[in-house]
Amino acid sequence: MKRVWVSNPSWPNHKSVFTSAGLEVREYAYYDAANHALDFDGLLASLNEAQAGDVVLFHGCCHNPTGIDPTLDQWQQLAQLSVEKGWLTAVRFRLPGLRPPVWKKMLKGYALLLLYIKSCWSPAPTRKTLACTTSASAPALWSPRIKRL
């Protein structure tokens, strides 16, 4: 693993974290500012350049900073492309509670399950999908503990 793909735009820290770890950071198209929508055609065109062994980082829900997520059909297409290209897929989940609960759970669960199942059929050695989450954006999980310090 030498190269990581992050969306453009993305959370600003992503690039610096990966660069400081010695990884090359590439960007894939994500946001269509003119239409305030996902640039899915641009996203696919960008990720067609990703190679086997690259890491592709997705925001599983509530993309930061746009708030725009792929549809379920688009997640299916991304999962299929990940199998064809042999990436290591990383899905970052953040901002719990910003989507209506039922939709949020369905989208998070569907995206992760779909990417994981598809990765099982991808060529070795890239049969992997990673899920990352944080409680930093969920003060209800950590604020009582911080107050006790």
Provide a descriptive summary of the structure in words:
The radius of gyration is 16 Å and the shape is globular. The longest helix is centred in the C-terminal third of the chain and has 20 residues, at 101-120. The protein is built from five helices and seven strands. A five-stranded parallel β-sheet has the order 2-1-5-6-7. With 149 residues, the protein is of the alpha/beta class. Residues 145-149 have low confidence and may be disordered. It has one domain (3-148): Type I PLP-dependent aspartate aminotransferase-like (Major domain) (Aspartate Aminotransferase, domain 2), CATH 3.40.640. The N and C termini lie far apart (39 Å). Its EC number is 2.6.1.1. Residues 3-89 form the Aminotransferase class I/classII large domain. Homodimer.
Brief summary:
InterPro entries: Aminotransferase_I/II_large (IPR004839), Asp_trans (IPR000796), PyrdxlP-dep_Trfase (IPR015424), PyrdxlP-dep_Trfase_major (IPR015421). This protein has 149 residues and is an alpha/beta fold.
Task: Please state the CA-atom Rg, rounded to the nearest Å.
Answer: 16 Å
Total strands: the figure is 7
Q: Largest sheet, if any?
A: 5 strands, parallel
Whole-number tally of structural domains: 1
Task: Indicate the low-confidence ranges by residue numbers.
Answer: 145-149
Protein name: Aspartate aminotransferase
Subunit structure: Homodimer.
Organism: Klebsiella pneumoniae
Cofactor: pyridoxal 5'-phosphate
